[in-house]
Predict the structure.
Amino acid sequence: MHYFRRKGWEISEREATPEALFLDRRSVLGAGAGALLSGLTPTIALAATEEADPSAALYPAKRNDAFTLDRELTAEKLNGQYNNFYEFGTDKRIFTRVDTLKTRPWTIKIDGMVEKAREIGIDDLLKQVQLEERLYRHRCVEAWSMTVPWTGFPLKALIAIAKPLASAKYVRFETFLDPKMGPGQKLSWYPWPYVEGLTMAEAMNDLTLMVTGAYGKPLAKQFGAPIRLHVPWKYGFKSAKSITRISFTDEQPKNFWQSLQASEYGFWANVNPAVAHPRWSQATEEVLGKSERAPTLLFNGYAEQVADLYKGMEGQKIWF
Ligand code: MTE
């Protein structure tokens, strides 16, 4: 979509239009489909998820039927070839260059306002939680959406392991910082590492998921292996990928996009079709793989589960 020298979501109005997004994605997919049809070896393929993954035996996990959808799932290939992961580039073709991400060993630091700071390896963590599959909507602030069969465990299970102090008000998530692994981090005008944050109440909500798998397998690298967040009622940028640090704090964390462009991105980022992004409408979304746009839903369709979290905050900018 946009390359160097542009900051944040500084896409031009033309590029920001849904039509342009649609054409852009089509051209990517068209290249792969063309290669397949002509019988040539496709030059693009999903990043290798087949690498020996010590957690592979945990998948597929049992589906939790409390989290289903009224929409078809987005095809795995389509989803895996259209990603945002700025550590690996500013376009959507992350799958072509994500091999430098090494997901083992992988340690997550838990610190800040906790009884005792600690580090935990991903495979140790996986032994302490119960994985389940959930079908979730995913709505990007760029006005496209997907439906994904994530596998993971509720963030609140990790919070129980972390034992935060009662005075902690927020959870802060940090992605790895290693420009050799994520060459996009050599672009010095971005405020690396990628940071996101939630209130404790948001973090404890049933819907807030730590994701370790998708489509019945360990996470493909472009999805943010080996562990990412997914907060389905917020714009996708809240769902930090490849997390290495989780901190508890009493200060509202400043996230990556907010640090870059606070006039357009804030802490809350709750989905609301009635509140436009300063440069484009959020009323509808392009459902990847479909030719027709769908209306965007308040809280991305999860109002029943989360609207109460924001009672009394009506006057505040909870939509940015
Ligand atoms: N996490 C990191 N570390 N880096 C990123 O660039 N992009 C965010 C979010 N998490 C991003 C990230 C954005 S803008 C979106 S829409 C989602 O990841 C995309 O997730 P997906 O590629 O699995 O669809």
Q: What stands out?
A: The chain has a mean pLDDT of 88. The chain has eight helices and twelve strands.
